[in-house]
Amino acid sequence: MKKLPFRFTLVLLIALLLAFFLHFFALKNLNLPPFADMLVPSYITNFLLATAIFMGLFYARKKLKNALGFLFMGGSLIKFAVFFVVFYPSYRADGEIVRTEFAAFFIPYLTALVLETYFASKMLNQIADS
N or C end of the chain: smaller count of CB under 10 Å? Predict the structure, then answer.
């Protein structure tokens, strides 16, 4: 159980790097600017937020085990708040959010969310078994 935060961070890093390179090369092959739409900050922000949220859940797992689901949802709320404060103004600067802007935020967000959910459920199962 003590290795779970390290494994989560490592798997998240690898998955986001893989998603970033696939995203980057897809944009390049479509002749779209690969570093536009705050692509790099989006991946970095999602990595940092997902890691912080998972670590918070991990260290609160014993004291607040009945509230972990709410804390998890609160983490998602924090991610959306960061999106609206950091990314949304830039994306809406021209009056609309185009698909590449949406993808620049949503792909790393979804990748991190899937892994957070998987590892959080693993953690909850280990808590229930102990």
Answer: C
Q: Residue 100 is encoded by which pair of tokens?
A: 């590449």
- Encoding tokens for residue 118? 């998987």
Say how far apart CA 8 and CA 55 lie, in whole Å. 9
Decide: 53 and 46 in contact? Cβ < 8 Å: no
pLDDT digits (tens, 9 = 90+) for 84-100: 899 888 888 888 888 99
Q: What is the residue extent of each domain of the chain?
A: 4-129
Alpha-carbon distance 43 to 39, whole Å?
6
> Which sign does the torsion angle of CA 9, 15, 19, 20 carry?
positive
pTM: 0.91
| Two tokens, residue 98 | 């185009």
